[in-house]
Write a structure and sequence with these properties.
By secondary structure, this protein is mainly α. Helices cover 70% and strands 0% of the residues.
Amino acid sequence: MNTTLNVVLWIAQGFLALFFFAGGVPKVVGRGIDRWTGFSDLPRAQVILVGVTEVLAAAGLVLPKATGVLPWLTPLAAIGLAVIGLMAAGFHVRFNEHLNVLETSLLASIGGVIAIGRWDLVDSSAEVAPWTVVIALCLLVPAAVVNVVILYKGGAQQTASAHSSSGQPMEARQPVA
């Protein structure tokens, strides 16, 4: 593998792992998430599950390749974080947080790029060609777009029902700072 590409992938992996680790730990611990948009509406067990998957995927993004133990888990963790990012984009669409939708979509894209760049770590005896990850992402992205559109339509209906007869919002949600 090209040395420059390897360095760029390590930087991207480190950034993505830090981001998801920093976002997952508060969900597991439960400190401060009451200020995050929408988490008060979810069951605590679901929030903990999301946090645990984020923390484990962040560890799986860096540790297997760094230690040499099961390095094929790295591209799979990247795909998992891409899926989490796309699902988070749909979550933010429901609350009309367009900047957060852009951010989580970008993080999902970074996860997809890492998965493609590290796909050579998958055991070659499994006879899985590198282009299969590209096909998987080509199927995943439209599915995520459909998910976002459906959630957006549901969010628009929810937003319309949250307004009083005077057109003023009955309650205002504050996005995460």
